[in-house]
Amino acid sequence: xxxxxxxxxxxxxxxxxxxxxxxxxxxxxxxxxxxxxxxxxxxxxxxxxxxxxxxxxxxxxxxxxxxxxxxxxxxxxxxxxxxxxxxxxxxxxxxxxxxxxxxxxxxxxxxxxxxxxx
Length: 118
What we know:
Helices cover 72% and strands 0% of the residues. It is mostly helical. The protein folds into 2 domains: 3-53, Orthogonal Bundle (434 Repressor (Amino-terminal Domain)), CATH 1.10.260; 68-117. Helix 1 packs parallel to helix 4. The longest helix has 37 residues, at 81-117. The protein is flat.
């Protein structure tokens, strides 16, 4: 999530207008608007101030880079539309089978509990 999105998300979750957030943060509504639309790139310290003014905090940590989604998107781009459709339909069949197996397992467990109680 980009910094501009963080500010907007924090503000909306807090139920604040841009003007209300600006008043809490000691800045102007137009400054908040510029940040939210991506007109400026505030520092991490400034983002933290704005998010805290909305009643939230930013938790920054280093994590391993995971490019799995990008790799999958690039791989899918090389497929024909028919191949993509075939893959999607195959996934849907697997997902449906998994849901049905879960329903059957729950029903079986319910019957077993019912039999134990009688």
